[in-house]
Design a protein that fits this description.
Distance between the termini: 50 Å
Number of helices: 16
CATH class of the largest domain: Alpha Beta
Order of helices and strands: HHEHEHEHHEHEHEEEHEHHHHHHH
Strand content: 5-15%
CATH topology of the largest domain: Rossmann fold
Radius of gyration: 24 Å
Helix content: 40-55%
Number of domains: 3
């Protein structure tokens, strides 16, 4: 069921929290403005901080269809926007020839009609949806190249796609657009200017505790507190890839499966692979470093 857009920043916070997404007020503000102004929202930040989840939660909370374009190196128009069903077109041509069809202009018009058009995510997002304009998630845009960015400019400026054989297909109601980037490369200013921008950083201890409680409610209170304190400390270490919120939640779930009620050095060392994804990072903190971090964490908690 479709729900109305939030009418204020507070309603935006409530909308997200109702779907177990704990947002700070700055994020809720820019999301509210993007919805009210009909502008794409460009989210940058480290992997695992919850950028993609915003689009998923927003679609679920508003009762809209989520259309996801997962970006990757080499992404092109045929995968992202549209392509023609060549097999069906060839079959139509052969049937027409077998039937003695000689009007080539008519045949060309027929095979390049919408009946043979295969709609990919960007074109799907421009078309009417039963529950209202969809949420279009363009995920990890930094994985594509600048040529694809340039193609997006028309889609994000005018909310239309040009198919040479059919002309411009314009959205009657613009989709809600969320674009994410892990900042492995800089996105061109021309695209950023068409969006509202927000940097999604690592949450502070208080907000990360709220996130864990919302997403892993079965974890014991002491374990939740210690998980968050340890991860916050871990992010301050010299690591190749710091753990994101996604890894915090995975660790909470893993420790719950192990029936843990509190952290100890052996348990942390055995489960470091849930938090850290590079062997050099694991080796840099395993053993004596983990024991020292736990000791410092508990000493700090007593202050």
């Amino acid at each position: 069921m479709q729900h109305p857009l939030p009418g204020s920043i507070d309603e935006t916070v409530t909308l997200l929290s109702g779907a177990s997404y704990v947002a700070d007020r700055s994020l809720a503000t820019v999301l509210f403005l993007a919805l009210r102004m009909g502008r794409p929202l460009f989210l940058e930040g480290e992997a695992g901080v919850g950028k993609t989840e915003i689009a998923k939660v927003l679609a679920a909370a508003l009762g809209r269809r989520l259309i996801r374009l997962q970006c990757y190196e080499g992404l092109d128009v045929s995968s992202a926007v549209y392509e023609w069903n060549y097999a069906a077109q060839m079959m139509a041509i052969r049937l027409a020839e077998a039937a003695g069809e000689t009007d080539r202009a008519r045949l060309e018009q027929d095979i390049f009609s919408e009946r043979y058009l295969v709609r990919r995510p960007l074109l799907q997002a421009m078309e009417p949806q039963p529950g209202g304009p969809p949420v279009l998630l363009i995920d990890e845009l930094d994985r594509t190249d600048e040529a694809f960015e340039a193609f997006l400019l028309e889609a994000l400026s005018d909310f239309q796609i040009t198919v040479p054989e059919l002309g411009a297909i314009k959205a009657a109601q613009p989709p809600i657009v969320i674009i994410t980037s892990n900042r492995t490369r800089e996105i061109h200013d021309a695209l950023k200017r068409r969006c509202l921008y927000h940097w999604v950083g690592y949450p502070n201890s208080e907000r990360e505790t709220q996130i864990v409680r919302a997403k892993a409610p079965d974890a014991p209170e002491r374990l939740t507190t210690e998980i968050v304190a340890f991860v916050q400390n871990l992010r301050g270490q010299d690591l190749f890839k710091k753990p994101g919120v996604a890894e915090t939640l995975d660790w909470a779930s893993a420790l719950h499966e192990l029936n843990a009620v509190a952290l100890d050095a052996a348990l942390v060392n055995d489960t470091l692979g849930v938090l850290l994804k590079y062997q050099d990072d694991i080796e840099s903190v395993a053993g004596a470093k983990v024991a020292q971090m736990l000791s410092d964490m508990r000493a700090q908690a007593k202050v």
